[in-house]
């Protein structure tokens, strides 16, 4: 069956949100998403909520919070999904499966997280639950320590790539300056990101503060519809392909610098879509840490293993390059409210494809890729999206 289509969306400003919690964050985006899609609450057949939580909020049962914030949706079947940092994509894919199975015609997807109210040390401990705690719970610096180890191993195998990571950070902060939804509107030079200083200290292994994404609050929502419903709406964004490929959770049982699951998801999706990486006009990818974006260059086929650094050195992934990556600023600048991220990435791509990206808009975007991962490249989601109208 043909994939359902995105027909509308909404996105909050990421950062330290004034909203008290998840209920208010969701209520802030759901009505706007329905309006953007041109549908009413009575048209929604299912609600799919992505929230990581695991201690960020004492309120669980998050699927029911949409109906609390928007009472007109209180009687619509709703579920909550969690898949670490890929929680938002898990919710979107479940909604699309719901429609593809014929259970409904229109579904609402909401991703949200309230993280800033949690002390930093506690937040780090919560996020460590996305690793294999039996072996990795005592890693210094929390989840940053996991990626610090990955960066250290990559440097040991391929030489010091600190400057290339700094170039990725500077690129994404420059892009974030154009994104009104971004958490951080501050541009950094490559030299500032590369030099260790009081304002940019080492956080874990070779990773500096500018190599790490932000603790953010925020929400995003998407309305997806069956192809026959999408025929009659103002805009429609199609999926040429969508795939999830998992890898082993424990880092000790795989090569953590390979991102084999991510490579598998990209390979399957490009083949399913009948395109190559060179056919894409842009990519929104998961730069929770700059080393992740560099390894994703290799996983998506822009460079051979160990050669991802040349991609950023040659300017391939800048706004002016052959394949702009993270024109929204990515997680690095846009922010990373865990449950919202996957939904946000798909919204950012949909905005570009529909020509509604405002100051972020790239010229003539017709085919876009999205990569969202959970944990250290464990749950890997790749979508290939295209403009329909």
SSE blueprint and pairings:
Layout: E1 5-11, H1 22-37, E2 46-50, H2 65-69, E3 78-81, H3 87-100, E4 106-113, H4 120-127, H5 133-136, H6 142-158, H7 162-176, H8 190-194, E5 202-204, E6 207-208, E7 218-225, H9 227-230, E8 237-246, H10 260-273, E9 282-284, H11 290-299, H12 308-313, H13 330-334, H14 338-354, E10 367-374, E11 379-387
Describe the protein in words:
With 389 residues, this protein is α/β, with parallel strands linked by helices. The chain has a domain at 5-118 and 215-230: Peroxisomal Thiolase, Chain A, domain 1 (3-Layer(aba) Sandwich), CATH 3.40.47.10. 36% of the residues lie in helices and 17% in strands. It is built from 14 helices and eleven strands. It has helices at residues 22-37, 65-69, 87-100, 120-127, 133-136, 142-158, 162-176, 190-194, 227-230, 260-273, 290-299, 308-313, 330-334, 338-354, and strands at residues 5-11, 46-50, 78-81, 106-113, 202-204, 207-208, 218-225, 237-246, 282-284, 367-374, 379-387. The strands form three sheets. The chain has a five-stranded mixed β-sheet. Strands 8-11-10-9 form a four-stranded mixed β-sheet, with helices on both faces. The protein has a two-stranded antiparallel sheet with strand order 5-6. α3 crosses α14 and α7 packs across α11 (290-299). The protein is globular, with a radius of gyration of 19 Å. It starts with a strand and ends with a strand. The model has no long low-confidence stretch (mean pLDDT 97).
């Amino acid at each position: 069956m043909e994939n359902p289509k995105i027909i509308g969306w909404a996105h909050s400003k990421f950062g330290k949100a004034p909203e008290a919690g998840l209920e208010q964050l969701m209520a802030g985006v759901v009505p706007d998403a329905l309006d953007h899609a041109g549908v009413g609450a009575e048209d929604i057949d299912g609600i799919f909520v992505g929230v990581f939580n695991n201690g960020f909020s004492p309120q669980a049962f998050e699927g029911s919070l949409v109906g609390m914030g928007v009472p007109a949706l209180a009687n619509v079947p709703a579920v909550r999904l969690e898949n670490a940092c890929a929680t938002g994509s898990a919710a979107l894919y479940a909604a699309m499966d719901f429609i593809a199975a014929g259970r409904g015609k229109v579904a609402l997807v909401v991703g949200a997280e309230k993280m800033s109210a949690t002390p930093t040390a506690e937040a780090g401990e919560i996020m460590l639950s996305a690793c294999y705690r039996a072996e990795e719970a005592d890693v210094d610096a929390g989840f940053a320590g996991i990626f610090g180890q990955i960066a250290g191993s990559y440097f040991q195998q391929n030489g010091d790539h600190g400057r290339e990571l700094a170039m990725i950070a500077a690129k994404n902060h420059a892009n974030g300056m154009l994104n009104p939804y971004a958490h951080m509107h501050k541009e950094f030079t490559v030299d500032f990101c590369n030099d260790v200083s009081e304002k940019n200290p080492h956080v874990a292994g070779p990773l500096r503060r500018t190599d790490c994404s932000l603790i953010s609050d925020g929400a995003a929502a998407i309305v997806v519809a069956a192809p026959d419903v999408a025929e009659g709406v103002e805009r429609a964004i199609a999926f040429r392909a969508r795939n999830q490929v998992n890898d082993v959770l424990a880092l000790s049982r795989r090569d953590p610098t390979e991102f084999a699951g991510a490579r598998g998801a990209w390979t399957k999706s490009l083949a399913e879509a009948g395109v190559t990486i060179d056919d894409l006009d842009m990519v929104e990818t998961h730069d929770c840490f700059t080393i992740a974006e560099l390894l994703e260059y290799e996983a998506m086929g822009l460079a051979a293993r160990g050669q991802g650094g040349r991609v950023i050195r040659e300017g391939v992934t800048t706004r002016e390059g052959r394949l702009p990556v993270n024109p929204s600023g990515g997680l690095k600048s846009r922010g990373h409210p865990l449950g919202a991220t996957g939904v946000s990435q798909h919204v950012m791509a949909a905005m570009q494809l529909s020509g509604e990206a405002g100051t972020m808009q790239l010229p003539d975007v017709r085919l876009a890729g999205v990569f969202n991962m959970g944990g250290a490249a464990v749950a890997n989601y790749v979508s290939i999206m295209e403009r329909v109208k």
